Amino acid sequence: MNLKPSLAALALTLTVSLSAQADNRDEFSKANQMLFLTPHMDALDEAGTTVHYRYERSGTHQEPENVFSDHISLTITDVLEESFRAGEVQFFTGDRERPFPGFRQARGNPVLAGFLQHDVNRMSEAAGQPVRYFQNRIKTVLEDEPVIEEITFEYEGEDVTGHRITVTPYKGDSDRNRYDREFWEKYYTFTVSEDVPGFIYQLEAVAPNSDAEEPYYQDILTLESIERP
Q1: Any residues with CB less than 8 A from the CB of 5 and at least 6 apart, and which?
Q2: Distance (Å, rounded) from C-alpha 135 to C-alpha 209?
Q3: Residue 229 included in any domain
Q4: Which are the contacts of 211, defined by CB distance < 8 A and separation ≥ 6?
């Protein structure tokens, strides 16, 4: 399966659709409001600003060459009215880099969309099921079953308040026999705060391992630094 078109298509779709739904935000769960209907990039208020994220992949099911650390960066090219931003995303570096469309009018952070789409593409490959199947599972639990905690975490040496959203999309899936049981307990956590640039501090996709302490599957994206012009 070619990951590249799907990754680009989802990011482009979300940057357009999220802003269109903002007026109807009360119709959505608190989790969906925070992740997809909140202006994420107000603090990125100067063209030329770049936010750097560290991406780490590990897990017992990975071949050694597929365990790696890499980077994702988001650069603002234009600051628009009403919290909209234009810019571009570099998704991984070197041979791993994935094509990612520039965004012209985004209020949400496109890195979130890219992380989720990259994850469900890999789930689809592993399970032999359509990408949309896993997209819909995540969408459903974010609306119906999210666990939301108020938390304090450290960023750049200071305590920051925010929220951690946790969902387990496949635990209650009546059709989960379609795919590897190691994914049944897989969970996603979204650590967010209005006090960090770009709103997204950390994203995790983790499948615990029933036979070992190390997870079967683990991808973690963490805000690393911000570079201003």
Answers
A1: none
A2: 23
A3: no
A4: none
Residue 35 — φ and ψ, nearest 5°? -80, -30
CB contact at 8 A, 76 and 41: yes
Q: What are the distances in angstroms from CA 129 to CA 2, 26, 59, 100, 215? A: 14, 33, 21, 24, 22
Instruction: Map tokens 């307990």 to a residue.
Output: 185
Q: Can you say whether the dihedral through the CA atoms of 14, 16, 22, 27 is positive or negative?
A: negative
74 in any annotated domain = yes
Quote the CA–CA distance of 127 and 155 in Å, as a whole number: 36
pLDDT at 24 over 70: no
The pLDDT tens digits of the residues spanning 144-178 come to 889 999 999 999 999 999 999 999 998 888 888 88
| 11 belongs to a structural domain | yes
Decide if 173 contacts 219 (C-beta within 8 A).
no
Grouping H, G, I as helix, E, B as strand and the rest as coil, residue 198 is coil
Q: How far is CA 160 from CA 41, 150, 156, 200, 226, in A?
A: 17, 11, 9, 12, 16
Determine the Cα–Cα distance for residues 78 and 68; give it in Å rounded to an integer. Answer: 32
The 10s digit of each residue's pLDDT in 50-103 is 999 999 998 877 777 778 999 999 999 999 998 999 999 999 999 999 889 899
The total number of structural domains that make up the chain: 1
Token representation of residue 209: 């391992």
